[in-house]
Design a protein that fits this description.
By secondary structure, the chain is of the alpha/beta class. About 35% of the residues lie in helices and about 15% in strands. The protein has 16 helices and 13 strands. Strands 4-5-13-10-11-12 form a 6-stranded mixed beta sheet, sandwiched between helices. Helix 6 packs parallel to helix 7 and helix 13 crosses helix 14. The protein is globular, with a radius of gyration of 22 Å.
Length: about 425
């Protein structure tokens, strides 16, 4: 493997630089920390510039632009190198000439969180840690449980009682200890959000590593998201014109933007994409209004990387699209019916934003567009059932005793939609 280039931490508040180490916030001003790299050293002392576009295992491919010092302690499940699939029927339906879907749903545990977890848990392994904790809407908990199992570590996961059953079961299968919090959808978001805010201090006090995928909690973890940008640019021979990402916590969008900027700094890209984010409404505070002094967001979930994501959107001259449950369900249905792509609700946020933008004529004609599918549909089968129930031409199963008992297929077509046999 190539040697790892020197990297360091920079405070986003007071701008002081700090050596890599077990730091999660600036020790002087308590602001967020960002990972920075010596790109001159990467160009001069590694073969990264010559080989970055090759499809190689995650750590072989991206080690020079990640903070791992001891690659012998890197932990992997085969994350990354996910497909970039050109759209056909979906693109034609919405008038898009060059649309590609980045299938982060094909990562080992079914979401892009595997990239982030691989970086965070590998760095913590260098520090000698064996216990990890996270608060999660589901996918980070799944990723932590799987990677901890891979390494023989302990994992503790706090999720809400409203977490999709498939995700909860997936976490438990890997052997993690689960703690159930009140469902923010039914009893309010305050206590749920306080768990996220308190996780860093809770873990540090107990000798654990906090692995919430947010820069204010663990600056190492969000580095994994930027590798999406490198892969997309490699597959397209350059960045796309427009990049659609989901906005949950905000770390994927902001981290991917960081990756595109690094590519330009390294001289591997001549342009930068517009970053378009899609954020669900409800109890989530809009990231473009977090600094509105006239609004009280105490009863909302405030995305921990929301400001970073909003700043990234603005810096890229992108757009933020607000989406609702109906639009997300529609996006899931369109992805499945038009492209054969099965996404969970969170995995379809970006596609819902894309549909909204395309329908309203917001995307420049001829633009190359990449849309992230961030999580697999098998993670939430209750949501999948809702797609079937809401689709007017859904085909109900027909009970037969044998092939010879099967009705005429031409006559059967669409005849029994929505009828339970």
């Amino acid at each position: 493997m190539p040697p790892v280039a020197r990297s360091w931490l920079t405070c986003t508040g007071c701008e002081r630089t700090l050596p890599l180490g077990e730091l999660y916030r600036c020790p002087e001003c308590c602001a967020e920390l960002s990972l920075e790299y010596d790109f001159d050293e990467i160009r001069e002392r590694t073969d990264f510039v010559q080989r970055w576009s090759e499809r190689r295992p995650f750590w072989q491919r991206f080690a020079p632009v990640l903070p791992q010092d001891d690659l012998g302690r890197a932990i992997t499940l085969g994350e990354g190198n996910t497909p970039l699939v050109r759209s056909s029927r979906f693109a034609a339906t919405y008038g898009l000439e060059r649309l590609f879907f980045k299938l982060e749903s094909t990562n080992p545990t079914g979401s892009f969180k595997d990239r982030q977890m691989a970086v965070a848990i590998s760095k913590a392994n260098e520090w000698g840690h064996r216990r990890f904790g996270t608060a999660s809407s589901g996918n980070v908990g799944v990723a932590l449980a799987a990677y901890a199992a891979r390494a023989g570590f302990e994992s503790f996961v706090w999720v809400s009682e409203g977490t999709a059953a498939a995700k909860l079961q997936q976490i438990q299968v890997y052997g993690a200890q689960v703690f159930l919090l009140p469902d923010p959808e039914t009893v309010g978001v305050r206590s749920y959000f306080e768990t996220y805010l308190g996780m860093r201090a809770y873990c540090v006090e107990r000798g654990m590593v906090p692995v919430i995928s947010a820069r204010p909690v663990n600056p190492y973890m969000v580095e994994g998201a930027k590798t999406i940008a490198y892969e997309v640019a490699a597959d397209l021979a350059g960045p796309p014109d427009v990049f659609f990402a989901p906005v949950g916590g905000g770390g994927m969008l902001a981290g991917t933007w960081k990756g595109f900027m690094e590519l330009r700094t390294l001289g591997l890209a001549d342009s930068l994409p517009q970053m378009w984010g899609a954020q669900r409404g409800g109890y989530f505070a809009p990231i473009d209004e977090l600094d509105d002094g006239d609004r009280d967001w105490s009863d909302h979930y405030r995305p921990l990387d929301g400001r970073w994501a909003w700043n990234s959107i603005q810096a890229s001259r992108g757009q933020l699209l607000h989406i609702d449950r109906a639009e997300i369900l529609h996006a899931q249905t369109e992805l499945a019916r038009l492209e054969g792509l099965f996404a969970e609700p969170q995995g379809a946020y970006a596609a819902a934003g894309l549909i909204k933008a395309a329908t309203n004529g917001m995307i420049p004609p001829g633009a190359s567009v990449v849309c992230v599918i961030s999580g697999a549909g098998l993670k939430d089968m209750v949501a999948a059932a809702a797609i079937v129930d809401s689709t007017h031409d859904a085909k109900a199963p027909v009970r037969v005793a044998s092939l010879s008992d099967t009705p005429n297929l031409d006559e059967l077509e669409g005849a029994q939609a929505h009828h339970t046999p």
